[in-house]
Amino acid sequence: MQKTILAIALLFTLGSCASKKKMLAVQNERDQIQLALDKAKSDLSDCDGKVAKLNTDLRSAQNDVTSKNARVKELEEQLDYMKKNNNALLDRMSDLSVISREGAESIKKSMDVMYSQGNYIRDLNTSIQKKDSLNMALVMNLKRSLEDVSDEDVQVEVRKGVVYVSLSDKMLFNTGSYNITPQAETVLGKVARILNDYKQIDILVEGHTDTVPFQSGNLTDNWDLSVKRATSVVRTLQNKYGVAASRMIAGGRGEYLPKVDNDTKENRSLNRRTEIIITPKMDQFFNLYTPQAGK
User: Fold this and answer.
1) φ and ψ of 155, to 5 deg
2) What interhelical angle do 101-145 and 182-197 show, nearest 10?
3) Domain 128-285 belongs to what topology?
4) pTM of the shown model
5) Which residues of 15-52 are buried (b: 16+ CB within 10 A; e: fewer)?
6) CA distance 258 to 260
7) Which residue of 21, 160, 256, 273 has the fewest C-beta atoms within 10 A of its own C-beta?
8) What 3-state class would DSSP assign to 295?
9) Biggest alpha carbon distance in the chain?
10) How confident is the model at residue 127 (pLDDT cuts 50, 70, 90)?
11) Which residues, at least 6 apart from 190, have a Cβ–Cβ distance to it below 8 Å?
């Protein structure tokens, strides 16, 4: 009986050892498979990365090819344009080659005339700019000299490219008179000082009246009165303040160039005025050569 039990125990022990060996073998095999699986996953991940990079490189290469194709097309279009231009130039040169000597001379003369006219226009613009600068200086100096005189009595402005000094009737003359008042002589003296500083300018003195009929003594109407008032201003500038008579013109406009309508007392007062119009000497202003064809 004991022998039987020992035999069974021995068999069990031997069987147990055999099972452990198998388990160890299976576990080793499983570990090897796991290692192989991990390596396969790593290789697959590397492969995916390489595929992604290849796809990126492929897209970049495709974009590069597309850009280069567009550039090639652009260059081809430029080449075609240049070819067309060259052909047009060749055609024009062919046309020019048949121009006669007389035609060439005519073209040259026309170009000379255009060049001369361009010089004339530049010189004229220069003269206009100088005249504008002179007007600006005149206005500034006149306003500075007359700064203590009321604006109602004297106004200085530039109209139509010339300087106007407008003197009110009530300051210059008594009603119906053409004799200068003492107050007006003082104002004319201030104006005369500026006029004498600019000896290259001409002076036109214009008398103006309203529409109310006037007749007195040897004066038959407003026109006569406006002329006499203008000559009174001119004589005062000449005789009392030394303005050269050769620079001055006296004229009367009568009622025929009003500033405003003569429909109110105030408006009629504005129209009764004497204007000193200061202009550059025309022979100096237009002292420019006249372009001539062929020169």
Assistant:
1) -130, 135
2) 140
3) 60s Ribosomal Protein L30; Chain: A; (3.30.1330)
4) 0.57
5) eeeeeeeeeeeeeeeeeeeeeeeeeeeeeeeeeeeeee
6) 5
7) 160
8) coil
9) 187
10) low
11) 145, 146, 149
End-to-end CA distance of the chain: 155
Q: What are the boundaries of each domain within the chain?
A: 1-99, 128-285
Q: Which two tokens stand for residue 194?
A: 């500026």
CB atoms within 10 A of CB 253: 20
Residue keyed to tokens 């024009």: 92
pLDDT more than 70, % of the chain: 72
Per-residue pLDDT tens over the stretch 212-270: 998 888 899 999 999 999 999 999 999 999 999 999 999 999 999 999 999 999 999 99
**Tokens (6 digits) for 187:** 């104002």
Q: For residue 133, what are the β-bridge partners?
A: none
Q: Are 251 and 271 in contact (CB under 8 A)?
A: no
Q: Is 269 helix (H, G, I), strand (E, B) or coil?
A: helix
Most confident of 78-82, 101-105, 156-160, 273-277: 273-277
